[in-house]
Amino acid sequence: MCLLGNHGMLGFIDGTFTSPEEEKNGDSETKAKDQWKRSDTLIKGWIFGSVSQEVMISNELVGLDSACAVWDKLDKAYSTLPIDLRDEEMAKYVPLHRALLKGDWVKAQEIFNNDKDALTVKLVETGETALHIAIFRSKNTGLVKNLLEEINEESLLTLLDSNKLNVVHHAAAVGNTDGARMVVEKNPSLLFMLDVDGYLPIHRAIVSSHIKTFEYLVGASKEYIQHSNGVGYQSPFEGKVGVRLINLVIDARLFDVASKLIQEFPDMARGSDVNGDSALSYITDLPDAYLSGAGYNFYQRFVYSHLPAENNDLHDSEMNHDIENQESYKTKFITMCQRFGFIRVPHIKHLHEDRVKHNAAITLLKFICKEVGKKGGFRDLSKYYGDAFILAVQNDTPEAVEAIDECFPTAIWMTNKDNYSISQIAITKRCEKVYNFLVNKLEDKHIHKRTVDNNRNNLLHLAGKLAPMDKLNRVSGAALQMQREIQWFQEVKKFMIPTAVEETNAEEETPMTVFRIEHKQLRKEGEEWMKKAADSYTITTALIITIAFAAAITVPGGSSGNTGKAIYTKKASFIIFAVSDAISFFTSTTSLLLFLSILTARHREEDFLYRIPKRLIFGLGMLFLSVTFMIIAFSATLYLQFEGGKARILIPIATLTCLPIASFVTLQFPLLVELINSTYCTGIFAKQKGP
After folding, report:
1. Which of 89, 127, 199, 364 has a Cα-to-Cα distance from 286 of 20 to 30 A?
2. Residues 6+ apart with CB under 8 A from 672
């Protein structure tokens, strides 16, 4: 308004400035008409630029012939009462509002009998009417039924709040399935009205995670689909609105429902919504929908692999007794587990649900790819699957990458906005699962060995760059982070040709030079982490050495005055003490030497791969043994002091012995396991296959 006022153009929207051809003195020149038309078109453009696409479509603004007509349309749709009048009207209907919230139909009916306008008037500032409140707030089906008997079918279409939500929108938003059913049966056209956000009631249901209401609205929309053909209505299964629906269903992880919808309405898989997002992009942008994003441990992977991928129970009719059919034995085993209730165990049930979800996601992904493939040639199709394929690579979901690659063989040549290929993306983003797929399953993997970017960086140069922080922080401790980075560099080095190690980029830097520059700070932090850890453990080992040595020269029970030998030499508990104390002393001494070697090491980049982690592993292992045997030696000493109550004292001593050992295992053993796993186990990379 300020813009129009400053330019003296308010007359174009309030009707003051009319077209010269409409004036009574029709002798205006053509030039004046053209000038008026240009100004009017300019103002229409300003108005269109300030409203959303959904508002333009729902109010049918595009077809209007003047800025004044557009303004009048918007004014009728969105104008509000003056503040004083609005407050006065709302205050008048406060008793009605309270009655509706309480579900008091007697009080409400009394008000309606005295004021028929109360049935359709807006009772609150957000524009909700009596029926909105009955459905959205109280969910009283009896109250809703009584209100519907008082309101005629046509009036239901005009009951919109300030965001243009009709009563079915409200029912969907709160999951009031019964209320939605009653309203739809009276006027099905409400199913196909868009709100200010471009949402149909069915969209509101799925966004609010009300699955039962959503399922009802799907069935009702199919049943009354003919009502969507009218002006101002929109089918939920067509166009951008339909794609938005399938995207929301996918986002809600209802993959089976999405598959059924696409089977009935294939175009939902081929287009894009108002934001430009396709169903293929949505399904590939859900890492948790695939096994690769689950992060299972060994036990979970084992159980997962033996669970059925379907949600329905296996029937005996599916079992054949053919001895040669080996698959039937696995099926019988699964069925037996179901009968005995093993799948009902909480953690197994959760794994089974994940298995079903992952299978449904892959099935849906392949189905969408199949439907997208029907649009035309591969060159034209790249704009439909390209972004989705890059998303799958960046999210490190090899299942999605493989599925798209099988359907669209040219997908492996796709690049992102930085002109990076999938191999370059996988390395720079540290997507190890996609990288393993690339080097072990793609037949054209060798072509990627010669890939360079605009700065002449080959893949080894990219491996030398610092990993993204979100990937780096998945590893605990700067030293292990440095080890992971070295592992990446060495793994890519195996994949590349030998001469790639000496190739230089535009800055005349070799891959190793890039690695040292990029990881200078991380190497320093890793060195500090290692030295602090070694220093802390050194203090502990020194104390154990002191205790073990003192215990060795001051034996429990003392020594014989005649022979100088220990009094309890022949007792089994004394032998246990002596052996345990000796082992504790020698292991703690070894541990001390290993930790001292870490403190004095050079800590070069390559030392973080094996040399330094190996010393820390053996140092921690020796420390664990020394603590364990020190406690055993101490317990044996206590046992020797209680000659008369051997049976009674043995149990509490054994119990207390486990306490410090268990504490040490709980606090330090996870670090030891992580070190061993990252240093000696297979780790994140699969073994590379030969040419």
Report:
1. 199
2. 617, 620, 621, 624
